[in-house]
Amino acid sequence: MLDVDGVLVDGRPSDGLRWDHDLRQDMAIPTDALAEEFFKTEWNDIVIGKKALLPTLANALKRIAPAVQVEDLITYWFEMDSRIVEPVLADIRAARRDGIPVYLATNQEHLRAAYLMTSMGLSDEVDGIIYSAKAGSKKPQPEFFRFAGEFTGRQPHELLLVDDTIPNIRAAQSEGWNAVHWDGTEDLHTILRRSIEH
C-alpha cells in the first residue's frame, strides 16, 4: 500500500516544486486566497467524497479569480502535480514481477484519482487504487484502513503501508498493519525486502 503524493508523485514535472509555485504568475490566482477560500474550508469534504471538486472550486474562483475557468485550473493543477519519482516506479515494477501486489493508498478526490490512473498511466503500473473519496474516509481515519482491507480481501497483518506522513503510519499500525515511514533515506526495494524477511 503505497502513498502517492510525496512518495510516488512529487511536485512539478520540470523541477519537483509545488504545483502552485507559479500559480499567481501563470494564472493570476493568488495562492493564499485559494488556500483560504478553497483548501482550508472545502477540501476536507471534497477529499472524502461529500462534495464534488468542479462546482465547489468554481464557486471559490468566482470570488478570487472570476476570469479563470475552473476546468483550466484543474488541468493546470493536475499537470503541475504529476512528477513521477522514477526510482520508486522502478521498485514497484520489480515488486510486481516478484509477485507482490502493489496498491496506491491515497487521500484523493475522484477526478485526480482518475487522472493518476488514466492520464498518468499508473493503472498499468499498480494493482489498483484505494482513495479517500471512494472510501468515504481519509488517512489517518481508521475507516480508511478497514476499507482498504476489505477492498483487497487482505488481513491487516498482510498489509504494508509506505507513507511520508507519521500520523498515517501510526494509524495503520493501530489497525494491525505493517507500516514504514517514507523519508527518502531508504529505497522501496530495501523496505519491501526487510518487511518480507520479517
Defining key terms:
51% helix; globular; mainly alpha; 198 residues
Radius of gyration: 17 Å
Distance between the termini: 17 Å
Strand order within the widest sheet? 1-2
Structural class per helix/strand content? mainly alpha
- The poorly predicted ranges are none
Strand elements, count: 4
Provide mean pLDDT, rounded: 97
Number of helices: 10
Strand % is: 5-15%
Helix content: 40-55%
Element-by-element helix/strand order: HHHHHEHEHHEHEH
Shape: globular
Main sheet attributes: strand count, strand direction, barrel closure = 2 strands, parallel
Architecture overview:
This protein has 198 residues and is mostly helical. The chain has helices spanning 23-27, 31-47, 53-64, 70-80, 86-97, 110-119, 132-135, 142-152, 166-174, 188-197; strands spanning 103-106, 128-131, 160-163, 178-181. Helix 9 links the parallel strand 3 and strand 4 (178-181). It is globular.
